[in-house]
């Protein structure tokens, strides 16, 4: 009785996922006449979607922001073509990180530790029908509540394909090791993150600390960065379960070699890239992307200090683990690494 139902669901998933692959190749083969051009301040014509605005801008002179974003997209496509040999089927679980705004025709793939709290707040304003007006007035924990925003995985196969074909798809990325150190600092050095300490800290200490104290085994609240690295590169870790989203690789969360992203924003240029996306959506009058505080953010210099106690052997293993994110999004090998 159950088998036919499962079979039909699998077929629907495969059909929808196969369309995703077709969409990607259709997008990367667009003619030069469809590539973006025009100055950064442009009107959004009535009935025009953000994707149409991106592809069919009437003005001819390309702005610096547009040129940068086009370069990122082309490099991503080229790197995918060079380094990706196998094409796999995407299922609904692969689309959970894609947030949908049907009003403005946007698809946003959120990546933890890359301003995703503020972008979720912005998406709540855009999709809230007037319920929210100011992003920073939305509590951070509310921005992460399941159900406040719709995921692409919640739609039918036909609805998924339509949105992938016609909506503007964007993602924000960050230097991989700065993001990793940021995740470690937030989840393992903050006293209030007891859930992470219990869920992951106790396991890391039990497996990667010699002669752990009983209190550490119980609370898991004093994991060192070195122990965290051992946990990440341990093959047993991913055999047991997928990485937590806060340290999962961007290419595994958002599948940029299977889904064609129209805009690849970067944490390093967060403000200008966010403004550009909101202009494409015709939403700059509805919401402003919040200014971020730089006093506590994880920088490259800060990340370098965390790697001081990591041996070259484990530095290389960790780099190999995150290598595709460095390649896909054009981040240089950090100068503080000793890979030779």
Overall description:
It is found in: Golgi apparatus membrane. This protein is mainly alpha-helical and 340 residues long. It has 15 helices and five strands. It has helices at 2-28, 50-55, 64-83, 116-127, 140-143, 157-166, 176-188, 194-208, 214-219, 225-233, 235-240, 250-254, 270-280, 300-306, 312-328; strands at 98-101, 106-109, 150-151, 168-173, 263-266. It has a five-stranded mixed β-sheet. The N and C termini lie far apart (58 Å).
Low-confidence residue ranges: 1-45
Helical content stands at 40-55%
* Shape, principal axes of CA atoms: globular
> In angstroms, what is the radius of gyration?
21 Å
Q: How many β-strand stretches?
A: 5
The tally of helices reads: 15
Largest sheet: 5 strands, mixed
Strand content: 5-15%
Distance between the termini: 58 Å
Strand order of the largest sheet: 3-1-2-4-5
Order of helices and strands: HHHEEHHEHEHHHHHHEHHH
Structural class: mainly alpha
Q: Output mean pLDDT.
A: 86
């Amino acid at each position: 009785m159950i088998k036919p139902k499962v079979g039909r669901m699998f077929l629907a998933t495969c059909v929808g996922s196969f369309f995703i692959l077709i969409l990607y190749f259709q997008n990367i083969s667009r003619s030069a006449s469809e590539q973006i051009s025009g100055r950064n301040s442009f009107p959004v014509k009535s009935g025009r979607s953000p994707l149409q605005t991106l592809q069919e801008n009437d003005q001819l002179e390309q702005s610096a922001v547009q040129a940068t974003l086009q370069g990122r997209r082309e490099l991503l496509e080229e790197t995918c073509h060079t380094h990706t040999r196998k094409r796999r089927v995407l299922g609904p679980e692969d689309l959970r990180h894609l947030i949908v705004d049907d009003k403005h025709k946007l698809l946003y793939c959120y990546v933890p530790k890359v301003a995703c709290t503020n972008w979720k707040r912005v998406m709540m304003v855009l999709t809230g029908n007037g319920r929210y007006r100011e992003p920073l007035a939305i509590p951070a924990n509310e921005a992460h509540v399941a159900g406040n925003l719709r995921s692409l995985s919640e739609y039918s196969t036909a609805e998924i394909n339509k949105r992938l074909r016609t909506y503007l798809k964007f993602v924000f990325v960050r230097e991989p090791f700065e993001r990793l150190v940021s995740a470690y600092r937030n989840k393992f050095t903050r006293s209030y993150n007891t859930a992470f300490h219990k869920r992951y800290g106790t396991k890391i200490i039990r497996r990667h600390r010699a002669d752990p104290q009983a209190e550490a085994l119980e609370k898991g609240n004093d994991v060192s960065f070195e122990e965290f690295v051992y946990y990440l590169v341990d093959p047993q870790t991913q055999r047991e379960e997928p990485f937590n989203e806060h340290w999962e690789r961007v290419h595994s969360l958002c599948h940029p070699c299977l889904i064609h992203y129209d805009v690849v924003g970067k944490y390093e240029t967060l403000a200008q890239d966010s403004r550009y996306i909101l202009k494409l959506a015709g939403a700059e009058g509805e919401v402003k992307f919040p200014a971020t505080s730089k006093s506590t953010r994880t920088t490259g210099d800060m990340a370098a200090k965390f790697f001081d106690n990591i041996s070259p052997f484990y530095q290389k293993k960790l780099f190999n683990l995150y290598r595709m994110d460095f390649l896909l999004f054009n981040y240089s090998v950090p100068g503080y690494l000793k890979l030779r």
